[in-house]
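Hey all, quick one. A colleague (J.T.) asked me to put the calcium ion job into the tracker so the inputs and the structure tokens live in one place instead of scattered across chat threads. No bug as far as I know, just bookkeeping. Sequence used:
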Amino acid sequence: MSKVKTLIFVGALAMSFIASAANTNTQKPKTMVMSFEIDKYKRDGKEWDNIPLASNPPPDVYGKVTLPNDRTEDIPLHEDSYQLKIVIQDVELKVGDLVHVELFDRDRGRQDDVIATGDILYTGERETKENLGKATVKVTFLE
Ligand SMILES: [Ca+2]
Ligand SMILES: [Ca+2]
């Protein structure tokens, strides 16, 4: 190899190294599985639906997940359930991003109770578990 060719070769190698190093920060889209486990009792120590004979105690859960770039995904209503799981496809997150969660218990004849609202920090880990309000949220990322 001539001197010029060698220089170009080394230069190209350095460039590709820099490009791959920069790439570790931007990750491939993932599938995000969110499992919610809701506490049996709400803040006041009562069951979510506590009208004797007229209601089923477990909450009637619905809500919303907000991802970066204002992407929102609805959590459809799950009646009378302490547990639910949703799957969100093609999620692009970088370390430090926040996933905002809002969960409510639908009620008839009165204002819906807030079960949990808050943020989950994306740390790059495959799995995170967080207590948010009156729920435990487990997030798993699949390639
Ligand atoms: Ca209920
Ligand atoms: Ca309810």
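Adding what we noticed when we looked at it: The two ends are 42 Å apart (CA to CA). The beta strands are 30-38, 61-67, 71-78, 83-91, 98-105, 113-121, 127-132, 135-142.
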